[in-house]
Amino acid sequence: MKAAIMFRVFGPYNKARLRALARLSNWTLTGIRLCVKDDSRPWDDRDTDGLYETVTLSDVADSTTNSYALTQRVLETFRSVKPDVVILAGYTGLPFVAAALWAQRHASLNILLSESTFFDRRRGGIWKGMARRAFIKRLFHGAFVGGERARHYLETSRFPPGRIVTGYDVVDNSYFEKSSAEAHRNPALKARMGLPSQYFLYVGRFSPEKNLLKLLRAHKLYWRISGSQAWPVVLVGDGPQRPSIEQLVAEEHLEGVYLTGFKQVEELPVYYAFAGCFVLASSSEPWGLVVNEAMACGLPVLVSQRCGCVPELVRDGINGYTFDPHDERKLSELMLLVSSQKAGRQAMGEASRFLVARFTPETWAKNLLQLVCKLRPGSFDQVGKP
Questions:
Q1: Which end of the chain is more exposed for a tag (fewer CB within 10 A), N or C?
Q2: Torsion sign over Cα 368, 165, 117, 125
Q3: Is there a single domain that holds both residue 198 and residue 277?
Q4: Residue 216: how many CB atoms within 10 A of its CB?
Q5: Average pLDDT over residues 23-39
Q6: CA 205 and chain centroid, separation
């Protein structure tokens, strides 16, 4: 069977998933990426794996690619590959709409990969949301989603529950666990990189939905309470809100704030290795894959209740705590609680590894294969009708 799976870009997450799918399936697999580079995440993404065929439709950043020209290349690619199964990481934007329509007409199965939840930021009004969900129901046979919140989002549009599987949001746990452990065995790295002896860690884009200004204000409250025992906060990443963050640090004379800039996936395990706790304070977050990374590295986590991963990955008092992203005082209190309990942190870190262990690229591939087998070719007379 021939399968084509299309992402906007590959990046480290999707490469790991494609590798696992190629190893575990007997498919002739084609990975299609619209662009070689994502503007918002400047991953080094030119190298690909040899386990599957790769088609790159544009060799420039996604924002500089003509959407109509890209759509023509999508259609040409699908006509050339002629897949039996089409798997699409999204349903918005002309290239993905065109791919979904092509699959409806030509492919045996059309599967959606989705992270959308009701906690996610608004993408238009109520009517646009209803139209999107009707589009999904009409064009896709099945959906592979992040977790229960994403499942609920589709079920409310009357997408058949039996055609939805969860487990989409995974990272390469083995890579992060082994690489962080290796870094931890070399404590000289910490001094060489100018890292504090212990710290809270954030990894991700510097953009408004990540709620970093409130995170820094919560850290200021924590710093004031903890005094000489306070942990700094290390922010790894970059993005459009960086000037606002730097301005806040300067104007409010914030202490203990480290800005490292964007880091490639090969550099991240060192930052996880020496951190004491990971914090994600997003006001809107479909899932939060950096939480997976931190947990694979054995860290306790403080995660906003708005993050899609909370029901599956965070157990209050077991591997960390959840909080209202707009409650700066509560977050500061949780920072104090975690930083003052050394024994508790170790137990929480072990619990994190245990909880994230079932979210791997291998389970991702198995869940997707299970869905395809359930919706095997010939099972439907037309899209949306058994």
A1: C
A2: positive
A3: yes
A4: 22
A5: 89
A6: 12
CATH number at 366 reads: 3.40.50.2000
18 touches 52 (CB < 8 A): yes
Question: How far apart are the C-alpha atoms of 322 and 304, rounded to whole Å?
Answer: 5
Torsional sign, CA 32, 38, 40, 44: positive
Q: What percent of the chain has pLDDT over 70?
A: 91
Tell me: do 253 and 237 sit in the same domain.
yes
Range of the domain at 16: 2-170+360-374
Tokens read off for 315: 């157990």
Q: Whole-angstrom Cα distance, residue 352 to residue 327?
A: 24
Tokens of 51: 């386990």
User: Is 300 a domain residue?
Assistant: yes
Q: Are 47 and 163 members of one domain? A: yes
Let me know if residue 379 belongs to a domain: no
Q: What is the CA radius of gyration of the chain?
A: 21
Give percent of the chain above pLDDT 90. Answer: 76
Structural domain count of the chain: 2
Q: Are residues 133 and 190 in the same domain?
A: no
The alpha helices in the chain, defined as continuous H runs, are: 11-24, 67-81, 94-106, 126-139, 148-155, 173-184, 188-192, 212-226, 242-251, 268-274, 289-296, 310-313, 328-339, 342-356, 361-374
Are 198 and 309 in a shared domain?
A: yes
DSSP letter at 92?
A: -
Strand order, beta sheet including 320-323: 257-261, 233-236, 200-203, 277-280, 301-304, 320-323
Indicate the SS3 state at residue 20: helix
Reported confidence tier of residue 322, pLDDT bands at 50, 70, 90: very high
Do 110 and 165 belong to one domain?
yes
Same domain, yes or no: 178 and 166: no
CA quadruple 90, 91, 95, 100: dihedral sign: positive
Same domain, 334 and 189: yes
Residues 300, 280 contacting (CB under 8 angstroms): no
Q: Say if pTM beats, i.e. exceeds, 0.85.
A: yes
Residue 385 domain-assigned? no
